[in-house]
Amino acid sequence: MARANNPAILGECAYCPVPGTTKDHIPPQTIYAKGTQNKPWVPACRRCNGGASKDDEYMQRLAMLSGAEASKDAQAVEERFMRAIQRKEAKGLQADTFASLSKQTPEQELLFPGGINMALQGERLGRITDKLVRGWWYKLSNGLKIPAEHSIMKYTLGDRKNTNPLYDFNEQEIGKCPGFFSGDYAFSMQMAYCPNSQLTCWRFIFFKVFGIMAYTCRKHEAGFDILNLRKPYSVIDYND
Ligand SMILES: [Zn+2]
């Protein structure tokens, strides 16, 4: 059946070279309390925007992480999410969610009384982070895409401390950069870059507690070129 109206084109899709007719929120808007204003988004085609509902659910589960209740958004999202998994249709989601939860260690219990641990699904988290980096690159560059010979490397904050001191240093340093914040710190982001090499370093924090580090680097035979924040780099002023 033909559609009566063609949907308006909002710009080129942030992830592929076709017209974008939908708003793709970066991060998914399910992580905010109802009524949150100014949720960041980019244009996306239906294909790139669709099929992410499992990822959205996954993001909601971050609201159940130990310590997340310090964010008002996390409280609202957790209530909404817990109501959603009570529904009969959500049996699979319920089993999946409860299977991913475990008791805290005694040390964690001291820090976050009554909190719970959540097993993180690496692949899903990787896909979500990829979209965040590609989406924000597009947004900050007014419609450019990450060069084809670059790739995105990501890990959860603090996970690489013993492999290379540069990661550790960068994790400290990027925390001092200007940032973008939305909701009650449901999402915060900091980014540093080198204008010449186009290497970038990103830090995303959800609900004040859960952090992801990401880099975009050139791929070459020896591996990656990581942006070294000891050397001069540029930052973005999000208040401009
Ligand atoms: Zn697309």
Key structural traits:
7-stranded antiparallel β-sheet, binds zinc ion, 2 domains, 240 residues, HNH endonuclease 5 domain-containing protein, 7 helices, alpha+beta, globular, two-stranded antiparallel ribbon
Your description of this structure?
- By secondary structure, this protein is of the alpha+beta class.
- It has two domains: 11-118, no CATH class; 126-235, no CATH class.
- The chain contains seven helices and 13 strands.
- Strands 7, 8, 9, 10, 11, 12 and 13 form a seven-stranded antiparallel sheet that branches. A two-stranded antiparallel ribbon has the order 1-2. Strands 3-4 form a two-stranded antiparallel sheet.
- It is globular and about 50 Å long.
- Bound molecules: zinc ion.
- Zinc ion (ZN) is lined by residues 13, 15-16, 18, 44-45, 47-48.
- This is HNH endonuclease 5 domain-containing protein.
The fraction of residues in strands falls at 15-25%
Tally of helical segments: 7
Q: How many domains is the backbone divided into?
A: 2
Average pLDDT confidence is 86
* Overall number of strands: 13
Low-pLDDT windows of residues: none
Class by SSE composition: alpha+beta
Could you estimate the helical fraction of the residues in percent? 25-40%
What is the terminal-to-terminal distance? 46 Å
Described by strand count, sense and barrel closure, the largest sheet is: 7 strands, antiparallel
Protein name: HNH endonuclease 5 domain-containing protein
Organism: Novipirellula galeiformis
How does the SSE layout of this entry go?
Layout: E1 11-12, E2 19-20, E3 22-25, E4 41-44, H1 46-49, H2 53-61, H3 72-86, H4 91-99, E5 101-102, H5 106-111, E6 117-118, H6 122-140, E7 150-156, H7 165-174, E8 179-182, E9 187-193, E10 200-206, E11 210-220, E12 223-224, E13 234-235
Antiparallel strand pairs: 1-2, 3-4, 5-6, 7-11, 8-9, 9-10, 9-13, 10-11, 11-12
